[in-house]
Amino acid sequence: MTGPVPVIVPGLRGSAPSHWQELYAARTDGAVTVPFPAEADRHSIDERTRLLGETVATVDGPVILVAHSAGVLAAVRWVRSLPDGDPVLGRVGGAVLATPPDFGVDWPEPHPRPAMLSAAGWEPIPRRRLPFPSVVAASRTDPLARYRVTAGLAEAWGSRLVDLGDAGHLNPAAGYGEWPLVDELVAELATARSRS
């Protein structure tokens, strides 16, 4: 693969085989997926950021983060855990941040309760500008997030906001399987990196 390597950052419950992240990884040469934590650490934000850091360390050259749901929060937390000027940050060419969850919403089953994740250290969500180009994809019908809250995160992170309209949580339950837009967004970020 030429250009940045996509690093797939799954959500809290991982990605089903029919999830767009799994399908994207399978058809994208060189893409790597952050491993799912052991059951005992499944809800640990610290374990998820550690695994993301280890995964990025296995890649030679630049990467583009492709995160979904709670994976977005893990990615942003990992970036913010690194000191300004860390050479690893210079390797991140951008991030696609799809449908981050909102802790102010009562999530439907089988998702965990937001209060449990909040107590496990997932809050506060970092709100500093990201040091690389990023795109936040937001759904107006996401059962795990309010659109205005997601738009506020995009603004805080300095991300371009993409309004997906009626996309649910951008998962198989919402009819996503394939999500062709991810290819365009990754290509956009890769092109922006090559120009900088």
From TrEMBL:
Pfam families xref list: Ser_hydrolase
Alphabetical list of InterPro entries matching this protein: AB_hydrolase_fold, RBBP9/YdeN
Entry GO MF terms: hydrolase activity
Protein name per its UniProtKB record: Alpha/beta hydrolase family protein
Record lineage: Bacteria, Bacillati, Actinomycetota, Actinomycetes, Mycobacteriales
